[in-house]
Amino acid sequence: MKKPRPKRPEQLADTPLEHEQRVQDALERAFRFIAKRERTVSQVSARLERDGIESAVIAEAVGQMVTDGYISDTRFAALYAEDRRAIDGWGNERIVTNLREAGVSTEIIEAIVGSRGHDDQVGDAIRVLDQRVGTKPSDARERERALGILARRGYSLEIAYDAVRAYERS
Known about the structure:
This protein is mostly helical. It has three domains: 17-71, Arc Repressor Mutant, subunit A (Orthogonal Bundle); 72-116, Arc Repressor Mutant, subunit A (Orthogonal Bundle); 117-170, Arc Repressor Mutant, subunit A, CATH 1.10.10. The chain is built from nine helices and no strands. The longest helix has 19 residues, at 16-34. The chain is elongated.
């Protein structure tokens, strides 16, 4: 009995039907991944790659999801920044760091973060101080503590300093 010959690379290519089935499988996995919360293109691609899906199939599935509006880095960044500001009291620096880690492009990050003016950021920082400090700083130690709170939340030193001064005057 003869052994079957190993297939040559051109014989290993998928039929169009097999390829389409693998794309459908990737889409199903991706939809399950984005079902609970908004995700970036990078996060979805990384998840599919971790699941062992080949890069050509990932590119096609993710591209289709972007085209159909299921994934949007801009939408993710806007919602993420809004939530982190409102829920956690984060400043721009911390938001930028986390958006970069999530794979959002620099252009999108700059557009989202740049939409908040100086006064808006100072107002956000004052609200954080209201929640965390409660009383106006009366000496240098309390001012430093307030600045530290804002710095850890991702506010720039300029914003934090202006917020502490405004908080003292209020």
